[in-house]
């Protein structure tokens, strides 16, 4: 495990984790995993089944039945999918069912993974951990722009309220809450565009691992 190159990218909703992690992975020749997709896909399976995403037994059953095809569904984004993902993510047995999957992915060839608990729970031994953030107002603006791009009508104030509620739920849960690892490097992207955030992150990675 010691030489395993895993880069953990954690942070709140719409901070730019995925955009950043995907670019880092491409730059460094590593596989990339968006771990939020796992929780989103479990939430979607529950919504499809007409079940309550907070129903622990039903959610655990769906997490255990998850397939790779679930992750490429086109309906994993949007307010209902966001809240369903956050609800199932608070259930310990759901997280346990998804843990091996994430670890196996990272251990195969190293990886860049983004989520909430990569540096704290999934890969606490990762040599590089980034905690990516931005102000709630800026994150809401970014998510709102994305939704508009997908043709999803939404009010900016409502997007911000939903994002704050989900961050609060993700931070308050007892299992694997959203919080920076003690040895994480903080990256505040409020005033950075995606390119500047990538360059700043690359500098942080190379400061930790000069051979890259
Ligand atoms: O994965 P996460 O929810 O943290 O965010 P994302 O989906 O990667 O990014 C949300 C949006 O913010 C995307 O449309 C990005 O183009 C934009 N953005 C960014 O990723 N990084 C910045 N520094 C500024 C904007
Ligand atoms: O893209 P965005 O940041 O809005 O969300 P995401 O990364 O796709 O994650 C969706 C939800 O899954 C989050 O609100 C968390 O509740 C949960 N999640 C988690 O608990 N742990 C992870 N490693 C990744 C996501």
TrEMBL record:
<keyword id="KW-0067">ATP-binding</keyword>
<keyword id="KW-0963">Cytoplasm</keyword>
<dbReference type="InterPro" id="IPR011994">
    <property type="entry name" value="Cytidylate_kinase_dom"/>
</dbReference>
<feature type="domain" description="Cytidylate kinase">
    <location>
        <begin position="7"/>
        <end position="204"/>
    </location>
</feature>
<keyword id="KW-0418">Kinase</keyword>
<comment type="similarity">
    <text>Belongs to the cytidylate kinase family. Type 1 subfamily.</text>
</comment>
<feature type="binding site">
    <location>
        <begin position="11"/>
        <end position="19"/>
    </location>
    <ligand>
        <name>ATP</name>
    </ligand>
</feature>
<dbReference type="InterPro" id="IPR027417">
    <property type="entry name" value="P-loop_NTPase"/>
</dbReference>
<keyword id="KW-0808">Transferase</keyword>
<dbReference type="InterPro" id="IPR003136">
    <property type="entry name" value="Cytidylate_kin"/>
</dbReference>
<dbReference type="Pfam" id="PF02224">
    <property type="entry name" value="Cytidylate_kin"/>
</dbReference>
<protein>
    <recommendedName>
        <fullName>Cytidylate kinase</fullName>
        <ecNumber>2.7.4.25</ecNumber>
    </recommendedName>
</protein>
<dbReference type="GO" id="GO:0016301">
    <property type="term" value="F:kinase activity"/>
</dbReference>
<keyword id="KW-0547">Nucleotide-binding</keyword>
């Amino acid at each position: 495990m010691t030489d395993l190159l895993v880069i953990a990218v954690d942070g709140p909703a719409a901070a730019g984790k995925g955009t950043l992690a995907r670019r880092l992975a491409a730059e460094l020749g590593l596989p990339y995993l968006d771990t939020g997709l796992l929780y989103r896909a479990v939430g979607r399976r529950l919504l499809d089944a007409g079940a309550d995403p907070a129903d622990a037994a039903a959610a655990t059953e769906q997490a255990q039945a998850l397939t790779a095809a679930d992750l490429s569904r086109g309906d994993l984004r949007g307010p209902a999918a966001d809240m369903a993902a956050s609800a199932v993510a608070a259930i310990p047995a759901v997280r346990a069912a998804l843990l091996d999957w994430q670890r196996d992915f990272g251990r195969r060839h190293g990886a860049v993974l983004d989520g909430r608990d990569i540096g704290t729970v999934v890969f606490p031994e990762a040599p590089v951990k980034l905690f990516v953030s931005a102000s709630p107002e800026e994150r809401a603006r970014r998510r709102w722009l994305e939704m508009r791009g997908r043709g999803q009508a939404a009010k900016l104030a409502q997007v911000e309220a939903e994002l704050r509620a989900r961050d609060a739920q993700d931070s308050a849960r007892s299992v694997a809450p959203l919080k920076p690892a003690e040895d994480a490097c903080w990256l505040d992207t409020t005033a950075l565009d995606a390119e500047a955030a990538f360059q700043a992150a690359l500098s942080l990675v190379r400061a930790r691992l000069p051979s890259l």
